[in-house]
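notes to self, project folder thing:

trying the whole complex as one job this time. last attempt i did each chain seperately and stitching them together was a nightmare. two parts in total, labels are on each line so i dont mix them up again. if this works i'll redo the older ones the same way
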Amino acid sequence: MDHNDYYSTLGLSRNATQDDIKKAYRKLARKYHPDVSQDADAGAKMAKINEAHDVLSDPEKRSVYDQVGHQAWVQGVRSADDLKAHRHWQHQASSASDEDLGHIFEEFFGRSGSRPRGARGRAVWPGQDIHADLSISIEDAYKGTTRTIQLKSAGVTPDGRLTDQVRTLEVKIPAGVAQGQLIRLAGQGEPGFGEGAPKGDLYLKIHIEPKDRMQVQGRDLLMPLAITPWEAAIGAQVQVNTPAGPVQVNVPAGTIARRKLRLRGKGIPGKTPGDILLEVEIAVPSAVTEEQKAAWQALAKAYPGFNPRF
Amino acid sequence: MPQRNDGIPRTIIEHVEIIEDNSLCTHDIARLCNVSPQWVIEHVEQDILHAQNRDGTYYFSTAMVWRARTIADLEDKFDADPQLAALVADLTEELHLLRNRLSRIDDK
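result (full assembly):
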C-alpha cells in the first residue's frame, strides 16, 4: 500500500465528501486493524490510514492540506508562516517553480497578499501530545532501566528551513513501574507552530513483556509453580526463584492444580507493592523402571475408590 | 545538547513524571483524549468510564486513559453510540487478555 497522498491512501478523489471519507476509513479500518488483520505490517498500514483520516476528516486541516499539498504538509506546514518558510526552503532547493508557489500564496492569502481573517488565530497552534507504548522486561520493572527512544517530528532550522528532525531521548525508567503505567515527559511532544506556541508532552504507556510464562497484571506478577504429586498431596516447603529473589514457599497439603498461592508484597515494588501469584502445576514423573511402576501401582492400591472422572 | 556519533541530538531525561493510579482528574482525561470535560463526565454518569468519586471530584486510573481514548476514537470515527463503543473497548481488552493467555499456553 504505497500511496502518494492522503486521498489515495483512503482510495478517494479530491472532491470526496465527509461522508465518503468516513465510509472509506471504516472499510479500511475493518480490513487493516491489527486486531483483525493477519497482515504482518497491518499496524503500519493502519497508522497511515489513521494519519490520512485525521487530516481529511477535519475540514480546517483538510483545507490547509489541499492548499499546501502533501509534500509541504508532511514537512510540517500548518500555517501561513510555515508556508513562507516552506517557500524559502523550496526556493533554495529549487524543487518547485516560483509560479507554482505564487499560486499557492494567492490561494492561501488571497490575491492582495493580505492574511484572511482568522489566519492569525490559526497561526499559533500548540504542539500535540505524543502517545507511545514502551516495552520493558519484568526485571526492568523491578529494578528500573534506561531506554533510548527516537522521535521524528517537523522542525525549523536557524535559517528558517523546515526539516524532519530526529531526536533521541534517553529516558531513565525508575524501578516500580506497573503494567499500563503512564509516564509524562513534559515538553517532549510535537513542537508548537507560531511564536510562543507551547510544545506538547510525550506520554509513554508502559508495557511489561511476558517472559518464561510469567506476566504482569498491574503490579501483580503471575508465574507458574511446578510441584510433584507428593508435594501436592502431603504439602512441602519449596524454593522458588522469583524476580524479587529466591523465596521459600509453603505448599499446603491437598493442593490442586491451578490453585494460586499468593506471595504478598513480592510483586512489582511501589507505594503499594504488588503480589506474586504462583499458579500451581502438578508435574507427573514418568514410570520407567520396574521399581517406579511398582510405586505407582502401590499408590493405586492405596486409593481403591478414587476416580477423577466423577 | 550532546550529540551522538551519528549526529542525532540526544537528550538525557533523568527524572520522569510517573502518573500515579487514581490521580487523574476529569480535566487530565479530557486533555489526554482530546475531548471536553463534559464528555468525560457524561461517560462516567453513563457508567462507561469508571472513576473514584472523592469529595465530589472524579479520579481516574491510568488504565482509564486507554479506554477513554479508544471510546472517543470509535465515537468520532464511526459515529458510534457510546454504549456500543464501550462494548467494543471491552471486547478489545478481552481479546488482548486472551491473546496473552494463549501465548503463555503456547510457551508451555
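what i see at first glance: Chain B touches chain A through 32 residues (CB under 8 Å).
need to look closer tmrw
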